[in-house]
Amino acid sequence: MSGPMKVLLTGGTGFLGEYLLVELLERGHTVWALYRSESRRLDTIRFLGSLGLPRNADGLHWFKCEVLELDEQWDKLCQQNHGIDQVNTLLHSAASTRLYMDKLGDPLRTNLGGAKVLVRLLARIPMQVHIISTAYVCGLVQDAIIREINHPRGDFVNVYEESKWDAEQLWHGKATLLRPSIIVGHSETARCKSFTGWYILFQALHLLDRLLHESKDSNRLDLNINLPAYSHAATNIVPVDYVAKAAVAIIESSDNHNNIFHLTHTDPPSHQWTMNYICKRFNMGGIHFSGAGTPITEPRNLIERMVWRQMKTILSHFSNNPVFDRSNTDRAIPHIPVPPITEDRVTKLVDYAIEKEKGAL
Ligand SMILES: NC(=O)c1ccc[n+]([C@@H]2O[C@H](COP(=O)([O-])OP(=O)(O)OC[C@H]3O[C@@H](n4cnc5c(N)ncnc54)[C@H](OP(=O)(O)O)[C@@H]3O)[C@@H](O)[C@H]2O)c1
Question: Domain 6-190+237-266+322-340, what fold?
Fold first, then answer.
């Protein structure tokens, strides 16, 4: 490490952003954290406080701004926030994680629009730039090995992935691109703030479990559900604490700057493993894999229809099966192992999500 960084962090109130903050503060860096909502900032301050962070008054400074206005507001921000003009590193984690376009044009508006604003800011204020992207900028692929390179425009599973690919195009060679796969809760505590992606499958099956309790028409051991995916394929999930630790360790070394890193799992659970777990946990059966791209079984009753509706948004994720190469990451941080995905860990993650849904946490 070449000395403490003075980091402008965007997205610090988000799921990953909070753990980036933890890691940066624990490792003695100074952080200027951009926020836009006072209540979200207070939540993050409470979370950091529970870990005894920040350790000194000068470690963390907050400033309020929309990422889309950062360039035009910069001079004013410098007048109002003494020392912000000393930042030498940008760690950009803010994003819209909506999978499909909304009325405001998100996720494209925030993800590509935000990147354009930052490129303009960087033209005036030199900083080392590190971008949190996603491993799924590779688009839809089957079993192919995905290297840590700039991919040609792919066949994207959703607008979110496309917006992240578009944003990456502005940064190649000028910024470090950190590409996590699907981020799940903390490897020890299971704490999570964003129950998207992988969690949607469990939400759907938890819903199905409750509906089946109330129904006499369905046989829970013979659900006759065909998932349009291959059983050997995997959903690459990775704990949030690993992503944060890996990201900060990578950007601390100038040897890594402006390269691409997959922050992905080395041994992700196969769909078959996950389905065996689910069937055991919820006492269900009759969920089969029919191969990527095959037609979806028509729901036979109201219960199946409701579960399908819930799962639809992530069905395409099951069909996608990239195998992520991690040569750069393994070379840069061989000392940081990825926590294995064990049955105990998945149980903790699912329990946490269920308790959160009940409002018990
Ligand atoms: N979660 C995953 O599975 C996953 C996987 C791969 C990559 N990633 C990437 O990881 C990064 C963090 O994701 P996350 O899961 O932590 O998302 P998140 O929990 O939704 O957090 C998003 C953060 O971005 C901020 N933000 C959004 N739009 C903004 C705007 N216009 N101006 C200022 N701040 C804005 C949010 O602020 P508020 O708190 O005010 O809303 C929040 O702090 C993103 O770049 C995402 O694409 C996530």
Answer: Rossmann fold (3.40.50)
